[in-house]
Amino acid sequence: MRFVIKIGTQSISGKSGLNKGRIRQIVAEIAALFKLGHEVVLVSSGAIGAGLPLVQFKSPLRKKIAAAVGQPILMQSYIHEARKRRIVAGQILILSDDFTNRKHFKNFVLNMEAMLSHKILPIINENDVMKREDLRVNDNDMLSAMVAVGLRADKLIILTNQDGLYTKNPDIDKNSELIKNVTKIDSKIKSLCFSKSDLGVGGMLAKVKAAEYATQKGVETLIGNGERRGIMGGALRRNFYGTRFMAKKI
Ligand code: GLU
């Protein structure tokens, strides 16, 4: 199977920079999928989170500069863990424009297929410095959906710091229950996106919108908690701990 796995900033970085333990866990779980013969593409945020502690000045471009400083630090951590498991990893920085420009898109697919056929782990992030707009957390959610659709992945797994969608706001309502399966993403499902990210932008909503895009184009999407050990392996089985969004048959 071909998996696209997206890991969010909040799952791998904190105030003091990267959470190396979490990176170790992610790479270990990817290595287990590799051993079973699966293909994995990782879409990882965390460049800004890794760079911010080193960029202590006021500037309207602070986040972009932090991304430039943090991206190699982020990659260094992944490469370090991957090497311990004899996995070769490569970095790809893309823009959403690359999916609308036919030549760029063909080139992207060609290079990604080549990496996957040689068992190299592609680690994708948005090319934050070259992006014209300001940077927002959660931009990688939709980007990962575009990657999954573009590469015809079997599954998109979006890992965050929540277990998935709940029937009620889990932060305030003890009777809330985790929704295991979603067959149709409609306004009712979107109204259950309670969690906000640190910067106050709709954290869960961005993920559900990414799931909507991917499932419409035939890619099953799972949202789960990156802090739960074995979360990726669960995606292979019916007992995934999180919310599974069924793909539309196309
Ligand atoms: N590309 C940004 C980073 O690596 C984050 C975008 C996102 O959180 O989705 O820090």
Automatic annotation (TrEMBL):
Substrate binds at residues 45, 128, 140. PROSITE patterns: GLUTAMATE_5_KINASE. It comes from the Bacteria. Signal peptide: none annotated. Pathway: Amino-acid biosynthesis; L-proline biosynthesis; L-glutamate 5-semialdehyde from L-glutamate: step 1/2. ATP binds at residue 6. Its main location: cytoplasm. Keywords: Amino-acid biosynthesis, ATP-binding, Cytoplasm, Kinase, Nucleotide-binding, Proline biosynthesis, Transferase. GO terms for biological process: L-proline biosynthetic process. One of its GO terms (molecular function) is ATP binding. Its EC number is 2.7.2.11. Coiled coil: none annotated. Residues 1-225 form the Aspartate/glutamate/uridylate kinase domain. One of its GO terms (cellular component) is cytosol. It is found in: Cytoplasm. Belongs to the glutamate 5-kinase family. Catalyzes the transfer of a phosphate group to glutamate to form L-glutamate 5-phosphate. This is Glutamate 5-kinase.
